[in-house]
Amino acid sequence: MDATIGLRAKTGRAIAVVLAGEPPALVWRGELTLVDPAAEIGPYHEVMELPWAEAIVAVRPLVDAIEVIASSALRDVIAALAANDIFIRAAGVVGSVPRNIDRIGNPHIRAHAAEGILFRRVLELAAERNQLPCRAFAERDLTAVALTMKKLGPPPWRTDERLAAAAAHCVIHPAAV
């Protein structure tokens, strides 16, 4: 069975929903850990007191590790579902939109903004590394679609799960956005 995965980027994790069929039906939902469990705070929080140009350089090893973890976590989900004859063919990622955060003066707010962008980008890269076509979405673009996704499975059906489901749905139904 062919399926799509929707991923809702959060700091350090992703809410994942896999849909298949027409109309779309829930096949699997779960959460992917995107950071080392021993990490206590987000990567940009660890360097937020540095000048921004230095912080970008200092955070690179942490970002590299997150990229590896995210790719591996997605690969594990793909393999587990393939073992049950469910084949993920594409991914939709919903999260913070890329934007220029250089001018955010408050280091703590800048760290949060940078991490929002980072975790969306890391999920897009994980899809690419796992040979999945990927489409990224801003949360605001999926809100209306997400409202129709709440009846796909048994409760609880959280907003983040509905957004992930909407991303999975819109990958194969682009007109829905």
List keywords for this structure.
Nucleotidyltransferase, domain 5, 177 residues, globular, alpha/beta, 45% helix
Can you put this structure into words, describing what you see?
- The protein has 177 residues and is α/β, with parallel strands linked by helices.
- The chain has one domain: 2-Layer Sandwich (Nucleotidyltransferase, domain 5).
- Helices cover 45% and strands 23% of the residues.
- The chain has helices at residues 43-46, 52-58, 60-82, 107-129, 139-147, 159-172; strands at residues 2-10, 13-20, 25-33, 87-95, 134-138.
- The chain has a five-stranded mixed sheet.
- Strand 2 and strand 3 form a beta hairpin.
- Helix 3 crosses helix 4 (107-129) and helix 5 (139-147) crosses helix 6.
- The longest helix has 23 residues, at 60-82.
- The protein is globular.
| Order of H and E elements | EEEHHHEHEHH
CATH class: Alpha Beta
Mean pLDDT over all positions: 91
Q: Count structural domains.
A: 1
CATH topology (level 3) name:
Nucleotidyltransferase, domain 5
By CATH's scheme, which homologous superfamily applies? Ribonuclease H-like superfamily/Ribonuclease H
Oligomer: single chain
The gyration radius over C-alpha positions equals 16 Å
**How far apart are the termini?**
24 Å
Query: How do the strands line up in the largest sheet?
Result: 3-2-1-4-5
* Main β sheet profile: 5 strands, mixed
- Tell me the fraction of residues in β-strands, as a range: 15-25%
Structural class: alpha/beta
